[in-house]
Amino acid sequence: MPSQIAKPASNGPLFPDYLPHYDPLEKIAAHFGPLHVHGWMPHPEKGPAEFVIVYDSKEDLRLRRFWARKNPIQFHPPGITFFAVIEQPEGVGGDTIFASTERAFMKLSPKFRSRVEGLKAVHTTAAQLSREIEDNKEKSTVRRPVTTSIHPVVTVHPVTGAKNLFVNSSYTKRIEGFDDDESEYLLKLLFNHIASGHDFSCRVRYQPGTVVLWDQRACQHSQTLDYAVRERRHAFRLTCLANVPIPSKIEEEDDGCALEEGREMLGLC
User: Fold this and answer.
1) Domain 2-251 in CATH 3.60.130.10
2) Which of 19, 104, 181, 269 is the most exposed place for a label (fewest CB within 10 A)?
3) Whole-angstrom Cα distance, residue 122 to residue 111?
4) First to last CA, the chain
């Protein structure tokens, strides 16, 4: 078990071969940290609020169109995540592509890696909340208002010590200190780099009962919308909150490395 716990941090997705019910899965997930209650996604009618229902069909427009880390806008963004499939489109489709943000960072040139380290980015839920209300109207559920936060563009994983890109096209809106054109250019480059990285990604195909476990501090994911609208994809997700993102580099004008508890803990000062 201890060796398996370390796998999501170092290797990406892990695939248990059984589908636990709410209670045992909730107990397993709680081992990794406080459980996250999503700001707008639905939860089971008779299940815990921490469980998120993922349900795509012609009647429900909650579709995953972008590469994402779930809710990186929080002070403590998500870490370990469980995704359990209940119903899957027949034949093919509805897969998930996972990309390693550690390997994405290492694929950048050394000079470019040096340039993006130390930068900070603004993350917000504004677009997601607006789309949730527009798409689902009376079905929409908003539990908290628009949230905005600032996190490092490059973070250090507290378990592996590896550097990871911490930007995604769903929530990251601009680079702090850059003008709009500069920010848009850099973010678009990083988004495309992650999305097109076939040599640091994998594709997961599901069947009913599949459970996928991954660490959102080390990878991003995107659903493949390649199944007919009449088909249904039904799953539930459970996510644990993780550490405050640890910056890989402290700029000279900042107050110093000693103020970053995570960097001191990892011996980076």
Assistant:
1) yes
2) 181
3) 23
4) 32
Residue carrying structure tokens 């054109």: 181
Q: Is the CA virtual torsion 117, 181, 174, 41 positive or negative?
A: negative
Question: Locate tokens 């000062």: which residue?
Answer: 269
The answer to whether 163 and 84 have CB atoms below 8 angstroms apart is: no
Return per-residue pLDDT of the chain as tens, 269 residues. 444 445 555 566 666 555 556 667 777 878 888 887 666 666 666 665 555 656 565 454 445 455 555 555 556 788 988 888 888 887 777 889 999 999 999 999 999 999 999 999 999 877 776 666 666 666 666 666 678 899 999 999 999 999 999 999 988 999 999 999 999 999 999 999 999 999 999 999 888 888 888 999 999 999 887 777 777 787 888 888 889 999 998 765 555 666 666 666 666 66
Pull the structure tokens for residue 198: 């076939």
Buried b (16+ CB within 10 A) or exposed e, 61-98: ebebebbbbbbbbbeebbbbbbbbbbebbeeebbbbbb
Tokens of 44: 């089971």
How far is 89 from 85, CA to CA, in rounded Å? 11
Alpha-carbon distances, residue 198 vs 97, 193, 194 (angstroms): 10, 10, 9
Q: Where are the domains of the chain?
A: 2-251
Nearest-Å Rg of the Cα atoms of the chain is: 18
